[in-house]
Amino acid sequence: MNAIKIAIAGVGNCASSLIQGLFYYKDVDTNNALIPGLMHNVLGGYKISNIKPVAAFDVDKRKVGKDLSEAIFAKPNCTKIFCNDVPDMGVEVKMGPVLDGVADHMRDYPEDRTFVIADERPVDVADELKKSGAEILINYLPVGSEEAVEHYVRACLDAGVAFINCMPVFIVSNQEWAKKFEKKGLPIIGDDIKSQVGATIVHRTMAKLFSDRGVKIDRTYQLNTGGNTDFLNMLERSRLVSKKISKTESVQSQMPVPMDRDDIHIGPSDYVPWLLDNKVAFIRIEGRKFGDAPVNLEMRLSVEDSPNSAGCAIDAIRCCKLALDRKIGGPLISISAYTMKRPLQQFPDDVARQMVEEFIKGERVR
Questions:
Q1: Is the domain of 124 the same as that of 60?
Q2: What is the number of structural domains in the chain?
Q3: 216-246 pLDDT, tens per residue?
Q4: What are phi and psi of 278, to 5 degrees?
Q5: 72 shares its domain with 184
């Protein structure tokens, strides 16, 4: 199979886990075994080793100008290192536009915890994408970076590059952007990536279980804490509007009737530095079963956050490549519903999974 040439916007913890995974799983070439961490060992004929980074963008002085293999381990990245054997990749991290990508309060924290903006002139992103030969751009910019994300989206349209939106700025679920990509014949996947087994997917599953079993959910919350730059960035509450919408709608979509806004609270709660890339989620569901008898559920989930998302990104990339091969433009409904919190169309996760299998086999267009 041909290489899948990807570019990355934002060389943070999620990008680090993804790149490490390309080499950690490089020898996996069969579907005949259950490999921890993979939903598809080989997808549509594409192995993980087919994925080749060819361009990367960031704004931190410790990453800009460095080879991608070095930049993924630079501060303030703090995710688990599970693959030390990442060779020089010949991909220099280029200076991207800052715009609204760095919240003002980030400057008040120690350098090893926060972003340090490079004193460099931003490159022409569209031009760099063209020169690199990238086919797909994966967006890992910080939450709240709406102007910066839209800059990369326009660059993709100009350069003829597909787009995977792993954060909660609404691009794929926005009809105006979706139509532009469809018109260009470019596939897009998004918005806001789920984890393989994270707070949102667990909360969705339990909410659907309650509803399917005839339990009326009265109140629910999801409180999340972590110590990476994502949680530090989200201390600026004004940047959380789209994130809260994305996570709340994802859980609400599994209920027959949406809950009153006062009875559901889902979203980041606090920054705990020593947790690093470990995310701890506290989930509570209160409901009424037969005879209005109460039933309450309490859960605590602890996960290494960034590898959790990479397990979904690795499949999104390969599905996006299949769409490029098949000349399909616009939102990819199936893989977006399965791997993203706010797709253009929501489906129960078991239904979305079956839709993905049908798409891989060519039995479903999108």
A1: yes
A2: 2
A3: 999 999 999 999 999 999 999 888 888 888 9
A4: -80, 130
A5: yes
Alpha carbons 225 and 278: distance in angstroms, whole number:
8
Identify which of 302, 299, 304, 264 has the alpha carbon closest to the alpha carbon of residue 282. 299
Q: Where are the beta strands (DSSP E) in the chain?
A: 4-9, 42-43, 46-47, 51-58, 93-95, 136-139, 162-165, 187-189, 216-226, 264-271, 278-288, 294-304, 330-331
Residue count of the chain, please give it. Answer: 366
Rounded distance between C-alpha atoms, residue 299 and residue 279, angstroms: 14
Amino acid letter for position 355: M
Residues 47 and 62 in one domain: yes
Task: Give φ, ψ of 9 to 5 degrees.
Answer: -105, 110
Residues 187 and 240 both lie in one domain: no
* 52/149 same-domain check: yes
Q: Exposed, middle or buried by CB within 10 Å (0-12, 13-18, 19+), for 46? A: buried
Name the pairing type of β-strands 51-58 and 4-9. Answer: parallel
Sorting pLDDT into bands at 50, 70 and 90, what band is 202? very high
Segment 52-63 shows an average pLDDT of 98
Last residue of a domain, one of 280, 304, 328: 304
Tell me the per-residue pLDDT of 112-125, one tens digit each, with 9 for 90 and over: 999 999 999 999 99
pLDDT digits (tens, 9 = 90+) for 137-182: 999 999 999 999 999 999 999 999 999 999 999 999 999 999 999 9
The CATH number assigned to the domain holding 224 equals 3.30.360.10
* % of the chain residues with pLDDT over 70: 100
Residues 172, 187: Cα–Cα separation, whole Å = 10
The pLDDT mean for the chain works out to 96
Does a structural domain hold residue 366?
Answer: no
